[in-house]
Amino acid sequence: MMSARRLPQPDAAAQAHSALLTAHIIQRMHAAGGRLPFSEFMQDILYAPGLGYYSAGWRKFGAEGDFITAPELSPLFSQCVARQCAQVLASLPADSRIILEFGAGTGRMAVDVLRKLARMETLPVAYWILELSGELQQRQRALFAEELPELLPRVRWLSQLPETGFSGVILGNEVLDAMPIERFHVTETQLERFYVAWDGTQFIWQTAGYDEPMLSAILSPLLPQLPVGYVSEYNALLAGWFRHLSCCLDKGLVLLIDYGFPRAEFYHPQRNEGTLMCHYRHYAHSDPLIMVGLQDVTAHVDFTAVAESAVDVGFSVAGYCDQANFLLSCGLMDLAQATPVEDTVNWTRQTQAVKRLLLPSEMGELFKVIALTRDWDAPLLGFRHDQQGRL
């Protein structure tokens, strides 16, 4: 992991953009009494309208951006996701099947999922994309127009969750890690919450006592093992997020893919600096207080909290496993062998992509997949090696 001091320097336009967001946050801090909880600071640096990392027009994905997601690595990833979607969609009337994807990035997964479903003759009647970034919406439309124009009429962009329920599949690839989180540390007598303030030249950390009943309940059996000074994160938004989802899905599947751990591993005593991470031009570091609006800021996912929040609002946990097992159960190797490879260069590229998707040292073990269902009882294709016992 690179030191923040050695990161590539942003150009003048990027620095000017960051200065605008900095001024916006400072104004918010003044209105709030001089500081903001880290969760609100993270909300602003990622999602402030027109200024935040995800809402502004900076290139984020791919070789020219800050990171590469699994759908960008290989269409095989999305084809496996499509196979899992097809199992659920096939049980529904053809005229009522809907897929809703959160934050579709470049649109690559949406295009590849729909292309595969078309070949399987299990197309949804509509594919909804909940995308708050106007720039990303344009990129997604352009990709559909270029690669899959015949299915573009099925795609609809949303700015908020639908108000009425539907049947089908909700997809979220690397969505949970981008939700604003609370950051805390353990002292000899209490938990303390991290705040961010402005000292006149830069953003700085501050702390104060943190009385959060839900977090206290989560940590109570673990605190005796956590050392003084232990730092970690807590997603206070999960419960509300799943309450909204529960109003949307009448029947079907919520499929969430992200990097993270079950709770015992997430709050392991040796993980004493937390999981907060920043990504800038494919460099990783741990300082979210610099280059505001120009870098991605994420935290790993507590999948036990995901499962608990979902069950509390009526979902069932139908499967949980690492990404490698999910993709293999969905037939990734068969798909790879059936994919024509014209030359050695493309064959090598596909082989390297498969390794990154599957190897424990790459994405295969760190990324997890969780299936949450409503009104669905059949075993799911992608969870032949279910690891729910780890939650």
From TrEMBL:
Keywords: Methyltransferase, Transferase. Transmembrane segments: none annotated. It comes from the Bacteria. Signal peptide: none annotated. SUPFAM superfamilies: S-adenosyl-L-methionine-dependent methyltransferases (SSF53335). One of its GO terms (biological process) is methylation. GO terms for molecular function: protein-arginine omega-N symmetric methyltransferase activity. InterPro entries: NDUFAF7, NDUFAF7_sf, SAM-dependent_MTases_sf. The keyword Disulfide bond does not apply. The keyword Nucleotide-binding does not apply. PANTHER family: PROTEIN ARGININE METHYLTRANSFERASE NDUFAF7, MITOCHONDRIAL. This is SAM-dependent methyltransferase.
